[in-house]
Amino acid sequence: MSTLVLAPAGRRLKALARAELTLLGRNRSALVTALLVPLALPFSVRPAVDRIDLKAQGLNIGTVMLTAAIGFSFLFAVYTSLVSAYVARREELVLKRLRTGEPGDAEILAGTALPAVCVGLVQSLVLCAGCAALLDAGAPRAPYLTVLGVLSGLVLCAAFAALTATVTRTVESAQVTALPLVFVSMLGSGVAIPTEVLPDRLASVCELLPLSPAIRLVRGGWTGQLSGYEVLAALATAVAWTVLAVFAVRRWFRWEPRR
Questions:
Q1: From CA 50, how far away is CA 53, in angstroms rounded?
Q2: Contact 83, 112 (CB under 8 A)
Q3: Are 154 and 221 in contact (CB under 8 A)?
Q4: Helix 105-134 / helix 81-91 crossing angle, nearest 10 deg
Q5: Which residues, at least 6 apart from 43, have a Cβ–Cβ distance to it below 8 Å?
Q6: Using CA atoms, how far apart are residues 95 and 88, in angstroms rounded to an integer?
Q7: Helix, strand, coil percent content, the chain, rounded in steps of 5
Q8: What's the predicted TM-score (pTM) here?
Q9: How far apart are CA 84 and CA 162, in angstroms?
Q10: 10-40 residue pLDDT tens
Q11: How far apart are alpha carbons 43 and 65 in whole angstroms?
């Protein structure tokens, strides 16, 4: 019985994802933002990173640049591109029409998110291989933590994209409403500046930011410096933010244009 139920849902999800991927391919600006920005931005933080004593924190330039690149992929390939996608589909009445058919609400949102999430996942894998080979990042000491970090970051960014879309009126304003999380994550979650080099009290606060657990797990997987307690704390924080975002989306997501 469960197989019979899941098969049609899988086909619907696949069809929605294929349609969204086609639309993404036709939107050049969204495609450039998703594919090129995460690869170029890490080099902009290289001068600041070079002035930090990374060895004192058990880090190296390869590990820091790797984490920065994956963090930028979360923010631009997944989060900002999905905010624009959700708002565009809502304003074009695509979401409203889909709700009159067989797909459920969760299927519609997940189908819209799948292409961006897959782009972010592929980018993360390519970045891991590239940084390990070209920047002497080496192999991850606890690869399962890096996997958990990447997966939690992708899921959380997709959930927060749907949440941000609830307060975004137009596609043009999506770039503005997405900025707070982007800036907070870049500065406080360890994307541009490792939290390990921040004062202890400030670092403790920054660890509670939405994207911090994913970044911490990715970096911890590479360095192997996270204790069991720190891993559990990061996972608990990531789950808490994701559950909160999903609850808010179920409660306040708008399926019709904001008039």
A1: 8
A2: no
A3: no
A4: 160
A5: none
A6: 9
A7: 80, 0, 20
A8: 0.90
A9: 10
A10: 788 888 888 887 777 777 776 676 777 777 7
A11: 8
